């Protein structure tokens, strides 16, 4: 995919453009991300897990092998998806997940978020395809990792179409938990890397 493609070219949709983010997109992308963690996840910004939302430049735009993609409509960012060279580690991830990826050679997808009024139009799929194409274009990456919250409607089915479940915390207890509260609803995936 070119660095800028309209959704018409990707999915047969009109009025959207999907492209790699530029510095001028940072505020709009951050808004989509923060709105999602507050509204959809209910816990809001947590510095330990969301530092990349505040410092998009350092996490996504500056590193050569990282990228942020955005979908925009009418000049407004309405969806995001990012790629970072980050191998899952244990803890916090289960050993069963971390052991499946080659250190330093894993692309991880982050912040695949779409504003509610723009969902169900193929934007998440187009953004994920852009991320996977980007990862495949980098010699460094041999695998792609993603985790999702199973409470997000449709998330597990969406990711299952693009890869395989490695570990489902809904049915397996994560022995590295810091607390004895409710089990996490996290599902870990290995995604197919197009080559």
H/E element order: EHEHHHEEHEHEHEE
Q: What is the helix tally? A: 7
Which parts are unreliable, with pLDDT below 50 for 5 consecutive residues or more?
none
* Broad structural category: alpha+beta
Query: Radius of gyration from the CA trace?
Result: 16 Å
Main pleated sheet: 8 strands, mixed
How do the strands of the widest beta sheet line up side by side? 1-2-3-4-5-6-8-7
Shape descriptor: globular
State the distance separating the first and last CA atoms.
14 Å
* Count of extended strands: 8
Mean pLDDT across every amino acid position: 89
Please report which band the strand proportion falls in: under 5%, 5-15%, 15-25%, 25-35%, 35-45% or over 45%. 25-35%
Share in helix:
25-40%
Walk me through the structure.
With 195 residues, the protein is of the alpha+beta class. The two termini are 14 Å apart. The model has no long low-confidence stretch (mean pLDDT 89).
Keywords:
195 residues; alpha+beta; eight-stranded mixed β-sheet; 7 helices; 29% helix
What is the topology?
Blueprint: E1 4-6, H1 7-11, E2 17-20, H2 26-39, H3 47-54, H4 56-61, E3 67-73, E4 76-85, H5 95-98, E5 106-114, H6 123-136, E6 143-149, H7 155-160, E7 163-168, E8 186-191
Parallel strand pairs: 5-6
Antiparallel strand pairs: 1-2, 2-3, 3-4, 4-5, 6-8, 7-8
What's the gist of this structure?
The protein has 195 residues and is of the alpha+beta class. Helix content is 29%, strand content 27%.
